[in-house]
Structures are given as structure tokens and as C-alpha cells.
Write a structure and sequence with these properties.
four-stranded antiparallel β-sheet; ten-stranded mixed β-sheet
Length: about 1500
Amino acid sequence: MELGPEDFLPPPECPVFEPSWAEFRDPLGYIAKIRPIAEKSGICKIRPPADWQPPFAVEVDNFRFTPRIQRLNELEAQTRVKLNYLDQIAKFWEIQGSSLKIPNVERRILDLYSLSKQCNTRPFDNEEKDKEYKPHSIPLRQSVQPSKFNSYGRRAKRLQPDPEPTEEDIEKNPELKKLQIYGAGPKMMGLGLMAKDKTLRKKDKEGPECPPTVVVKEELSGDVKMESASPKTFLESKEELSHSPEPCTKMTMRLRRNHSNAQFIESYVCRMCSRGDEDDKLLLCDGCDDNYHIFCLLPPLPEIPKGVWRCPKCVMAECKRPPEAFGFEQATREYTLQSFGEMADSFKADYFNMPVHMVPTELVEKEFWRLVNSIEEDVTVEYGADIHSKEFGSGFPVSDSKRHLTPEEEEYATSGWNLNVMPVLEQSVLCHINADISGMKVPWLYVGMVFSAFCWHIEDHWSYSINYLHWGEPKTWYGVPSLAAEHLEEVMKKLTPELFDSQPDLLHQLVTLMNPNTLMSHGVPVVRTNQCAGEFVITFPRAYHSGFNQGYNFAEAVNFCTADWLPAGRQCIEHYRRLRRYCVFSHEELICKMAACPEKLDLNLAAAVHKEMFIMVQEERRLRKALLEKGITEAEREAFELLPDDERQCIKCKTTCFLSALACYDCPDGLVCLSHINDLCKCSSSRQYLRYRYTLDELPAMLHKLKVRAESFDTWANKVRVALEVEDGRKRSLEELRALESEARERRFPNSELLQRLKNCLSEAESCVSRALGLVSGQEAGPNRVAGLQMTLAELRTFLGQMNNLPCAMHQIGDVKGILEQVEAYQTEAREALVSLPSNPGLLQSLLERGQRLGVEVPEAQQLQRQVEQARWLDEVKRTLAPSARRGTLAVMRGLLVAGSSVAPSPAVDKAQAELQELLTIAERWEEKAHLCLEARQKHPPATLEAIIHEAENIPVHLPNIQSLKEALAKARAWIADVDEIQNGDHYPCLDDLEGLVAVGRDLPVGLEELRQLELQVLTAHSWREKASKTFLKKNSCYTLLEVLCPCADAGSDSTKRSRWMEKELGLYKSDTELLGLSAQDLRDPGSVIVAFKEGEQKEKEGILQLRRTNSAKPNPLIPLTTSSSTTSICVCGQVPAGVGALQCDLCQDWFHGRCVTVPRLLSSPRSSPTSSPLLAWWEWDTKFLCPLCMRSRRPRLETILALLVALQRLPVRLPEGEALQCLTERAISWQGRARQALASEEVTALLGRLAELRQQLQAESRPEETPAYSSDAGEGTGKDLPKVQGLLENGDSVTSPEKVATEEGSDLELLSSLLPQLTGPVLELPEATRAPLEELMMEGDLLEVTLDENHSIWQLLQAGQPPDMERIHTLLELEKAERHGSRARGRALERRRRRKVDRGGETDDPAREELEPKRVRSSGPEAEEAQEEEELEEETGGEAPPVPLPTTGSPSIQEDQDGLEPVLEATSDPSAPFSTLTSRLLIPCPQQPPRQQL
């Protein structure tokens, strides 16, 4: 009955063992230990310790193998019988030219074999069965290349549907066309003719039905040789048929019958009716040439068929031919591990349609047995089995000379669980076989894939086997115990007798499976297990086992034999003799080889060999006696072990002879064992002789040696038993017991129970001696001995009893008895002392010290210890609370309380604990109160803190927080004293002193009333300093306010001045007072500051004169050099200025790049007048340039500085900047007085009047020219150019478009460029006597960081007295053009941004958002909005907007506006601020308005 996947029931699990590391170290010993349990199941699984993980030693890249091909449904015995039966039917039809078609019943193929069994019909049974079995010659467990024409070569094609004939085939083939008239039957199925549609099928059914018969194909044409020999084989007929050039007709038969030979004519008679009439209906067999009438056949044929035809006798002869021995065929492809794994994983994933690691093992198991039992599905897998590890390398590390092993690999290479080591262990029998038997002594490797299987088998010689799965998916095993081995064989023979008739040793070929459920249903006990990676599976002697792989994996297996295997090995040889099976090795030779060297044998093995040797000698005596009785007396010695196995095999039973054999002088090619002396030959007994290895006298001698070796253990065991049981009443010494243990080790006695008892006794005795010695030495060491090693009194008594009970004499027993007596005496004395409490503490202490020296713990000693500790604690509390004692800390109090809880309770202890607890509670409360005062945000006044400290001083405990509070109060008092001293001094306090006091006062945890006043004074001083800094310092200035206010004492050194400026730009120079040469302490003295300031003025004046002389000697960069100069000017950028664009500072006379510094605008006049100046008044153009090194500040007007001084007078704090500002103001006023005096002189007054007349004259000349429209042609002279400029700049207030402004400004610059040729000068004649004082005044005024009108007047006067500086004017024009070009690009970007805001509905169009904006932002006007847009533009462009250098001038007021800082105070005092355009210069009247600050 075929099983479905749901019908398979897994057998019970086999035993699983998990050895400890101690058990795992002895492999064969552990297997012997578990054998009583595991042997009952046949197989078992062993899981090594978790950290035993041998490395995989196979060279993966060089490992190549050719697997075997396995067709799953051919493995199972019952399925194979069915397939063989179907092969016979298929062969029957194939002989007759048809294909087998198996009908389907209920969508399943009909089981024809089971059907025939039910009907009890054997259509292919032969009348004479050949019972003679010839042993197979298939080597290596059926790993063969099969014949192309064998039976299972057809099986692969058996169930494949034949191609259906087309209509064209039917028309061309008359046989096919004729067959359409018959109904469904063998003919139609054999030729593959199937109805194409329903109509055709219906027509077939209506036609006449043909009885079952044979069908032939087209016959050969040409001459036909009639042979009366044996029937032709089917293959020969097929070859003849394949070479047939043309079809055969009916005439062929007639020609064959009309042959000229009469002998052949007489033979043409029907074999059925023995008549020769009706020869037209006589049919000739193509196999045996017999004749049959077509109507004599059963069933009869309607006509003579065409093609090859065979009679029923030939068909029967062909079908009864026995099948070839079944075996696995080798694949044609060679694999590496990687390629095989890829193939295996791909096959499994595709088959189950899921990842390989997710397929359950239960599903694979059920599917495997379903496929094995199926005759419909033909699944083929490949299995890399029986791969020789000698050739390809073992999976375990091996110690050889091929490669160096690491320490870890060396450990596994010598492990007994290494399958290369286990067969040759000392306890293993196979270590006495010299040859490397592949598969037994040398491991085999197995590379599996899903469904690849190993069939039911037992190991060679019924030996043990061990299998280790190195890695990969599990391997499923099934096992049957040895007791049920014969039962399994009987069941398989009973269920599949056909297989065993042809192969009696079928189960030895590893090619047959049977479903475990089938075996279990017939009473065979079966177990199973899943072997995972890293696990061992052991099979026991004669335990049948089989299994399959769950997927891609790599395993290794080997055989081994132990002493208990020897009886099974002998029985196996007898079993092989009955089966006539070859032996792998000679069992007799193995026994004799071990008996020859008994001293090398393990004791258990020697005993087992002795038993086997005794049986073997008795059997040999019997056989040789029978030989004598037959009359064979000749004999000669033969060294059988030197002969090859095939030269000493019995020709009858195939066993390998060793002890003796019978040979014949006349038949030297063969010999027989003594069990088959009658089967050697037919020669006379006198010609036969005995070949022997040992005489009958030598064998008992070998047996005796084994007996001595085996019985030596009994003698030793008797000695040990007497010693351990003290049977003679005398205890042995420790040395005697050690000698017995040493004897067992030297003679390699087995690890028996008696030996273990001896070892335990020795170990216990040695431990007792060691403890006794330690006890004695502990008494000698006294209190210095190691803690924790003391023995209690009860343990001491037990220890003494243990020593007395040991079967060993030890002299240390007397010492232990003496110690016990001392301890008991001490115990009595201690009890008396404890009863008489309260006793003297000194007595208790001395008793306690005596007990500690004993080395034994006495219960009374612990009570003494508690009493001593109690007295010590009370004394410590008394000393701590004494009034004269030093105050203890809270930690000391808590420690005393904790220690008091562990001492023995008493009224005194309770009272002391209560006092300590009360004192600790009070101290902690005051400590918490002090902590709150120190950490609280609301600081308490000094009076409150004094009260807390005063109350806490009465507590006799050291309180850290109270101490900290006391220290803080002392600091507060000192701080108040410092404040009073500063406030009551002769001068106002310095800001630095006040800041230090404020910082100290803030850190104190004390409320200070003076702190708020000081903080207010410091804040006011900082506010004034910030206001002064905004007034003087430029935006992002590198100077401090004090540096700007003080004179530059090192002005004469250009390198020092320049390097210091660079340091300040980089933030490297921080000193405020270095230039004045004052220390921080000197700055506190007003007199020192004034003196230093005056000295600095003089040094600055001398230094600038020196610098001017030095810089004047430098070459002019505007003039090409004809000679080299050692000194050249260096710009602030570090480069030498040269060519057009260089400017010279009017103060220090040094040269700079115009693009690197801030330059003045030509028409931005520093002074506004009710009447604007004409363009041709070039001396009023702003061409004055001061470099960044000379102009360090914004230079506010004197009126602003005076306002700062008024505010300074109201400060109760002294600042160094305030005193410096006073000195600067005095210096400016002094210079202003001298300048006014010089300007009021008669000569200078006349010169100023002359300049005023020139200005009026130029204005008068320009007014008649004014007209709203002029020709665009610009003529020469001022009169033609001015109207053009006027038209460009009319209604300038309403011009807002950047494009218009850019056009307007570009026209200004073009106009100025056209006016340059008309400039003439000087316009005044300035005598040297007048010029020199003015130039000196001018230089001193430029050194001042203050803006004064007199400075500008002197500048215009000196300008008018010299020719116009055309080179500077031209340079300034070029720089302004470049600047306006950048401004134009920036303006266009701003305009685009405004438009985008309008398009998006910007903030200005959203009333709600405008309402939410702060008033400051809304009131900032268009200037703030424009500045914000410029900042946003810079953010959008990543800071890469076109640089627009802000124009500057010598005028500080204009310079302040251009630097983007807040307007200075003089803007409100001067109602006539200049415009930024040329409107005022062109005399266009417009309303006065304050200047708009440029952002």
C-alpha cells in the first residue's frame, strides 16, 4: 500500500547524551559507559561540550568530487519491485514495438504489481527458476557506471508520454491509418495514437474491437537469413530494425516460405497444430524461426502483421531474463564544495518554494518518504558519498608534515574524538591492524543535498561506526538494534522476495531502503534522530541504520572496534561464510596479533582476547582432528599475513584464511578453509596438505600469556581488597597504598571500581594529613595565621573520627587528639568566666587571646568577643562625649551608633545609644539650618547669621556648615570694611576696585546693603564708557577707547606702528596702557595720567615729524623708478603700492592702495554754507586723505566731547578713559586757541577774503548760464557744461529709481572729468612765513582725534596756495567710478528683491503683520528697510555681493555717516548738513535737511 505524506509517522527518538568535559576526555571509555543504554536502540547521538568546536580543515578550493546519482523511487525495496514488474511489462510491449501505457484510476496511476498480487497471477514466472546466485562484482558499494541498456535506464523514460501522431503522420503511415479502425487497446497505446477530438474518439468506440495481441513494426527488406540457432536477443533485433532501409510487405513472408531448400520447406509446420497447410497464414518468428498459424495463436490474429514479430516463447524468454544487480550511477559532472552547495540550495529552495533554512525538518521527512514510495514521481538527487579522506583531506586537523598547525588545531588533531585518531586509540582493536583500511581505519567524507540518502545497512564486520556532521543542514537517521537485525532481514525478504532471489546479500550493498513505518508494522523496533552540525552519531555492532540529508551538509565517518566487539566480530565472520561474502580483514589474524604481544593490551582487551583466543583454539583443534581423520598428514608452515588477501581466500566461502588452510599439490591456484575440506578438488587425499601458521603447541602458549595478563589484575585486586577492608586487622601505611596505586598505573589496569576506591582512600588520607599539619602549624602561628581557616570544635571531633575510620595508619592522629584536649579545657575555663559576669575586662581579653591561639573556633570564644566589644564601645562613647574632648564630627557620631547596634545589648549600651541619637538629631537640625542659609537665594543679613552661629556653638559636635557660615560672615565683615575705606578716601574710587568688590560681594552668602549701591555705580560707569566708545570708535574698530584718547607715543616708528595695527586687526594686541608706559596702579593716580599724557603728546609730535621725513624719502609709486631704492612704502595689505590708484597720506606721507583704504568723495564738503560752492572752486574739493594708521577714531566734534565731560563729572567713579578724555579736550581747546589766533592775523585774514571773492565771482559767472534746456552738444568751458548737469540733477528729491540715480551719478563723474583741464592754480600767493606756521598747525590738528572747523579752514587755505593735485584728483575719480559701478549692481539686486516681495505679497502689504511689528522697526523708515534688504541680499549670495567701498573724507562728521554708525551730536548743532549729490555745488536752491545716514 502506497503511503502518503500525511501517513508517515516518525519513529521514537533515539537516546541523546551530553557528556561533561571529564567524561568527554575518554571517548571509548564514555562510549562503553553509555553502551548498556544506547545499544538497546542501535544508534545514539552525542552532543559534545559547547566549546568543543574543531576547525574545518578541508582545503575548500582544492576539494573536487564526483557525486552519485540517486533516483529516489528506486531506493525503496517495495517500490523497486513494482518498478521491476513494470519494466518487465514495458519490455514485453517494447519487444513487440509498442510503449507501455499505464491507465489512471481516480487520478492516480494504477498499481499493476499490487493488482497482479491480488489476482495471484505471475505472468512472467519461469517454469525453471535458477536458484544459483553469482556474487556481484560491483566494487565500492555500487558506485558504478551502468550499462546504456540496463533496466533503470529505461525507467527514467517509462512514464514520459509519447508524442502524439499528427494527421500528416497518419496519412503517410498506412499502419497507423489502418489501426484507426480498432478500439482502445495495446496497439493504439503502443503506437501512441490518441484521439484528437471528441468525434474521433466516438468513431473509435463504434469500430470493431480487436482482441489483445502483439503488434509489430515494419519488417526488414532484402535477404533474410533463416537461423535455427538460439533466439536472437532483443538488442540484436533492434539493431537490425534500425538498419532497415525500406518497409517489409506480405511478399517477404511468401518468399521466405518458397525457399529452394527442401529441408527448410519441411520445417515450415505450425508449432501449435503441427500442420503445414495454409502457408499463407503461417507466421515465422524473427527470434527462433518457429512457425505459427495466425489462427492458432492465443488470441488469434486477423492477418499477418508487418514488421518484426516474435512468438510467445521468445517473448517469455526475453521477459524472464533476471535484471542486473542494482547500483548507483556516477554523475558526469565534477563539483567543488561551492558549486555543489549552490546547486543543492537552489534545488531545495525551488522544490519547497521557500528559503532553505525555513523548510521544517518534519516536512522534508514526510516528503522524502512520499517520493520514495511513489512510482509516479521520478525525483533525482546527487550524493557525494564515500569520498576518501586520504586523497581529499579530512575535515579534522591532521598532524602531518604537509602544513604547520596552530596550537588550537594541534589540540583538535590529537583529540580522541578526531575521527582520524579514534580508530587507532589504545583501547581500539583496529590499532593492531597495520593496513589503512579505507572507510574503517581511514575516514570517508560525505557531501549531501536534500533527499540524498544512505540505505539500510550494517557496518563491515559488524563494527561500530561514528559519524560527525561538520556543518550544514541536519542529517536524519533511522536505527534498528542488533537484537532485531535478523528480524529486519526476514521482514524485507518476506516483503520483497524478488530482490533477494537475485541478490542474497542485497542488504550489504547499501542500495535498498524500506519505510520505517512498514518495518514497525511488522514488529521491527525503529528509532530516529536529527543529527545537527557539531554532533556525533554512534552506531553499535550489527545495528541496521539508514537515513537521508535535510539539505546541503558535510559529514565524516569512520569505524572503530572495542573489546566488547570481539564476539560480534567472530559471529560476523560466520555470517559472511554462509553468504560467501569477502572479508575486509582476517579476524583470526587480528586475534593472534594481539595475543602475540599481551603486555601491550589494555586489561579489558586482554581478557576479551583471551576468551576469543580460547574459543578459536578449541575450534582449530576440532578442525585439524577432522583433517587427520580424512587421512591428510602432510603439512607445512605458511606466513599467511605476508600473502595478499586474494591468494588466501577460501574458494568456497570466500573467507580469509590465517590459522590454517587446505591446499593441493596438483591444484595450486586454490585453497579452502578447514570448514570446507571436501570442496577443494577431486584429487586424492594424499595430494592434499595442510598449510598452517601456528602449531597446536604454540597456540596454548599464546593463550597462557593472555591468561597471565588478564589474571594479573585479580592478584592485584585481592591485595587492594585486603588493604581497604583491613581483613587481616593491620592498617597499611600510606606508602603501601601508594605502591598499589602505582602498580595499577604501570600495568595499565582498567579503571575499575576497586581502583577508584583505592584512589579515593589515598586522596582522603592525604587530605587528612594535610589538614592535621595545618592545624598544628596554625597553633604555632597564633594570631598571625590566615583568617577563615579555623576549624570548629564539632569539625575537629568529626575530623578525628574520620582519621580513625580510614584504613590507613597516620601518626598525625596523636597531634589531633592533643589539640582536642586543649580545646575542651579552654572551653570549661571560658564558661566559668562568663558565668561570673561582670568580671574583669582584662581577664576576658586574656581568655580571648588564648582561644585565638588554639586555632579552633569555640562557641564560648564568640561570647567573650561580644563582651569585650561591648566594653570597648562604651569606653569610646564616654571619651567622645567628654567636655574636655575634641569635638567629633557627624560621621563619628553615626559610626558610633552603627557600631552600638552590633554590640551585645545591655542597659548601659541602651542609655549611651539614646544620648548619641539625641545629640545627633540636634546637630543635624542645626547643620540643615546652616545649609539653607548658605544655599538660599534670599540672603540673610549679618545679624541673623550671627544669632545662628551663636546658638550652634553650644552643641559639642563639629558642624561643617556652621563653620562655613562663620567663615562667610567674617568675609562679609572684611568686605564691608573695604567698602567703607574706599568710599571715605580722598579720591573717587577707581572702576576696577569697585568691580572687584562687587564680584566678591556677590559670591558671599550674606545680605549686604552696600552691594546694591556699588552695583549701581559700576553700571553707571559702564554706561558712560559705552557711550564714549560709540562716540569715538569706528565700527568694528581694532582700538580700545583708551588707546584712541591717548596720544600715539611711537608714531615715529612706521614698522612698530604698522605691526601694532596689524596685531590689533588680528586681535593679538590687548594692552591699553602700553603706549603711555603706565601700570594698572599708575592709572589710579590722576597726576600720573596727566604727566604721561603730556609726555605722550610731545613724543607723538616728534615721532610724526620723523615719520614724515622717512616716508617723504620713499619713491613716489606714481613715477616709474629709474634707480633702485632700499626703502619702499607698504600698504596695509602687505603689498607695495604702485601705479595708478595709489594715494599718499597727508599726515604720515606714506603711500597706500586706494582700493585697500577708505578714500574721500571729491564733492562731499565737510562744511555747509548757505550758498553752495561752484564746481570750479577746486580748493574746496574734499581731497584730503588720512590713512587708517593716522585716523584711528571717528573724530567727533568738540561740542560732543564737552557733553561727555559734563556726564563724566556726575559719576562718583574714576575711569582712566575719563581722565584721558579730559587731557584730550584740553589739548584740543589749546590747539583751537592757537589756530584761531593764526587765522585772525592780518595776512591770513586777507588771504581768506581773497578766497571769498573768488567764490563769489565763480557763483556770479554760473547763474546767467542756468536754463532749463540746452543742446546736448557739450562745448568747451564751464558755461556749457553746467546747464547739462543741472538738467540731470533737477528734482533730485523725487528720484528713487536705482537706474536713474546711477545715470545721474555717472553724469556727475563725467562732468568732473571734463572739468579737470580747466582747473588752474594756485589761486593765492602764500608767503613762506605764513605757510610754515599754518602747516605746523595743520599737522598738529591732524594728530588730534577731534573734529574742529579751524582745521578745515587751514586746509582750504593751504590748498589754494598750491597748484591742484591732478594725480590725486584723477585717482579719486577712478576709485569713485569703480565704487558707483558696484553700488549700481547692488541697487539692481535690491530692486529685484523688492519686486519679489511685492509679487509674493510681502510684509509691507500685510496690515496684520505690520501691526504686529515692534514700533522701533516700523518707525525705522526706508533707510532701515534698505539696510535689511542689503543684509538679506548678502545672505542669499553667500556674502559674494559686489564690494561697495564706503567713501570717506577727512571730515569726521561725514566719516561717521559713511561708517554706518549712529549720527554724532554735531549733526543737530549744524543746520546746514551737506547733500550726497551735486545739487548744492550747482547752486540749485533746495530746502535744508539733515544728512541721511548711509547704511
